[in-house]
Amino acid sequence: MVVLPRPERRARGPASGVGAGSPSSGSRSGAGQENSGIRRRPMPPGLRRTSCTALAALLTAVLAIVPIGPAHAFTGDNHEDITRVALPWEPVTLTEMADARAGAINANDHPPYFDVGPLHCDNADHLAPRYASDYPRTRDEATTELLACIRTSVTRFRDAVEAADGLVDADGKVRADQSDLSSHCTWDGKPGRAKCAVLEQLGRGWHQIEDFYAHSNWSDRPAPGPFGLDNPPGLERTDVAPFLDIRRYSGMKDADWTRDARERVPADLATGCYTDIDSTGVKPADCDGRVTHNRALNKDTAASPRSKTGDNFHHATAGATAEITRQWNDFKAELLAKYPDHRRGAQMVCALVHDEPAGACP
User: Fold this and answer.
1) How far apart are CA 285 and CA 152, in angstroms?
2) pLDDT averaged over every residue in the chain
3) Can you tell me the distance from the alpha carbon of 90 to that of 97, in angstroms, rounded to the nearest whole number?
4) Which tens digit of pLDDT belongs to each residue from 254-273?
5) In sequence order, what are the beta bridge partners of 131?
6) β-bridge mates for residue 271, sequence order
7) How much of the chain, in percent, has pLDDT values that exceed 90?
């Protein structure tokens, strides 16, 4: 899949509905970065600067429902492009999920979630001693940060499966009131229509999975020259990441899946340092002496520095697209397995794919 270059994403305030063709979201790209290589982004319009204490409290809330382990993103337009290609859904439903400004896939890019690193797979940075003898983050610390990102997706997957139960009645008949999209969904976590609840959980769980491919060296290659802070090694992988096996992990005890995932993380894997709240609740003042998001690793747009080496941008978008296709197929399989009676699982899938499931899913 080729994703056309888009303008740099600009920060924006919270949106309550979906509007097709709406502008892109707040920038986590490297445009306008300062010489330090630290990613700088404008505050969303109308939002006062959130304190570190408040953001740390949000992180605690995000991670409280799962064990604590030891952000930022493709532009909203690129998230939309990737999601639209990956999902075989009818247009209204697909727009609710994918819209660049207000779709569920971009909900994590609205404040205050915008500054929570695990919601964007940030800060899993590491350089092996052969490249930097005194790198400030160990391999284990970097992997722990990556596990915090994966943990948020596992939790959202579990919640989406539970929310899907409301799409159909006990006999497998689609509930029209719970699957209706005649008015837009709002991504506020409050009780509402079951279809909106499922889309929100999936979108908030898939966002960081897409980000992983843009923010890491999983699929890219380095620029010519020596490896270092500004040019970390690239893994040049073309497969989906084995430690993003969200469905399988959702059925395991948290201690078991984190052990499994940790064993699958390559020694040279890294995502960039960004000055947002990490999984410990710490917001670093800067990323001095670390592999940074802006200068070193992000492929959020085709104009990002790392995107300009080879076909790195295409590899990131292709990897994210294949990953979301896998995640959707796994979610379907989980619904079929969990809700077999009266074909309830199949009806749930039908209700999610179709814009008017009450008529399309008899």
Assistant:
1) 24
2) 84
3) 11
4) 999 999 999 999 999 999 99
5) none
6) 216
7) 76
Task: Say how far apart CA 3 and CA 1 lie, in whole Å.
Answer: 6
Q: Does residue 86 contact residue 321 with C-beta atoms inside 8 Å?
A: yes
What does pTM read for this prediction? Answer: 0.82
Please tell me the predicted confidence (pLDDT) of residue 350: 98
How many Cα atoms occupy the beta-carbon half-sphere of 161 within 13 Å?
21
Cβ atoms of 22 and 99 within 8 Å: the answer is yes
For the segment 12-33, the average pLDDT, to the nearest whole number, is 36
Q: How confident is the model at residue 12 (pLDDT cuts 50, 70, 90)?
A: very low
- Band of residue 73 on the pLDDT scale cut at 50, 70, 90: low
pLDDT tens per residue, range 200-241: 999 999 999 999 999 999 999 999 999 999 999 999 999 999
Q: Which two tokens stand for residue 358?
A: 């009450």
Q: What type of residue sits at position 168?
A: V
Q: Which residue has the tokens 């797979």?
A: 121
Query: Do you find a cis peptide bond into 222, omega within 30 degrees of 0?
Result: no
Phi, psi of 159 (to 5 degrees): -65, -35
> Could you write out the three-class secondary structure of the chain?
CCCCCCCCCCCCCCCCCCCCCCCCCCCCCCCCCCCCCCCCCCCCCCCCCCCHHHHHHHHHHHHCCCCCCCCCCCCHHHHHHHHHHHCCCCHHHHHHHHCCCCCHHHHHHCCCHHHEHHHCCCCCCCCCCCCCCCCCCCHHHHHHHHHHHHHHHHHHHHHHHHHHHHHECCCCCECHHHHCCCCCCCCCCCCCCHHHHHHHHHHHHHHHHHHHHHHECCCCCCCCCCCECCECCCCCCCCCCHHHCHHHHHCCCHHHHHHHHHHHCCCCCCECECCCECCCCCCCCCCCCCCEHHHHHCCCCCCCHHHHCCCHHHHHHHHHHHHHHHHHHHHHHHHHHHCCHHHHHHHHHHHHHCCCHHHHCC
- Which amino acid is located at 162 in the chain? E
Q: Which residue has the higher pLDDT, 70 or 357?
A: 357
